[in-house]
Amino acid sequence: MVQLNKAPISTELTELLKSANEVMRVRKTCYLFQEGMEAKELYLILSGRVKVSKVTAEGQELSLRIASQDEIVGELTLFTDNPKYLFNCVVLEDCEVAIIKKDDLEKKLFKDNKLAFEFMKWMSDHFRKTQTKFRDLVLLGKKGALYSTLIRMTNSYGVPTERGILINLRLTNQELANFCATTRESVNRMLTELRNLGIISVAKGKITVHDLDYIKKEINCEGCPVKYCSIE
């Protein structure tokens, strides 16, 4: 049985660990899976970070989430015939993952009502996160997409400092643009505007948000619970 260095954060992950019997180490820039590949496994992240993304027909990448310790990727292939992965999953930093066989997990969900219920709750939260992200992308425009992404980043990777909230994650402007479904040039321009207003600053590839309330007011932030308003 796979063991974690620290206790999992939820009941469902505790149960899922019992379904994992193999651990794999994966190096940075490698793929756990790619869109269109036959889907036989789910992955529980034990350490490191991975990025889940989709490439459009025009070749533009849309980054959907960054998954880190105690999170699952590849879960959308459950209970489908001849399943294929819907997204790409690339390793952002060397990581360790527990491999959960799709068929084994499906059998366990059928037999274990408690596990099935907990997994359904986890999936419901996951879908709500995705829905709120796409809502922001569709309804708020490029500026709103960037601002909502910054808010999500502070919720997921924010570290309070004397000067504001440091987003403790290095991202290039192109990578940030991929989360916003826009171009690097547009992100460059909007970040420059925020820097000129003193709302943010950038040092060594990391953004510090000095006035989060300003960003929230600009997009009429609804104050969704952090569990739904995150980049993870």
Automatic annotation (TrEMBL):
PROSITE patterns: CNMP_BINDING_3, HTH_CRP_1, HTH_CRP_2. SUPFAM superfamilies: cAMP-binding domain-like, Winged helix' DNA-binding domain. Keywords: Activator, DNA-binding, Transcription, Transcription regulation. The keyword Mitochondrion does not apply. Residues 140-213 form the HTH crp-type domain. Pfam families: cNMP_binding, HTH_Crp_2. Residues 4-84 form the Cyclic nucleotide-binding domain. GO terms for molecular function: DNA binding; DNA-binding transcription factor activity. It comes from the Bacteria. Coiled coil: none annotated. InterPro entries: cNMP-bd_dom, cNMP-bd_dom_sf, Env_Response_Regulators, HTH_CRP, RmlC-like_jellyroll, Tscrpt_reg_HTH_Crp-type_CS, WH-like_DNA-bd_sf, WH_DNA-bd_sf. One of its GO terms (cellular component) is cytosol. PANTHER family: CRP FAMILY TRANSCRIPTIONAL REGULATORY PROTEIN (PTHR24567), HTH-TYPE TRANSCRIPTIONAL REGULATOR ARCR (PTHR24567:SF74). This is Crp/Fnr family transcriptional regulator. It comes from Fredinandcohnia quinoae. The lineage of its organism: Bacteria, Bacillati, Bacillota, Bacilli, Bacillales.
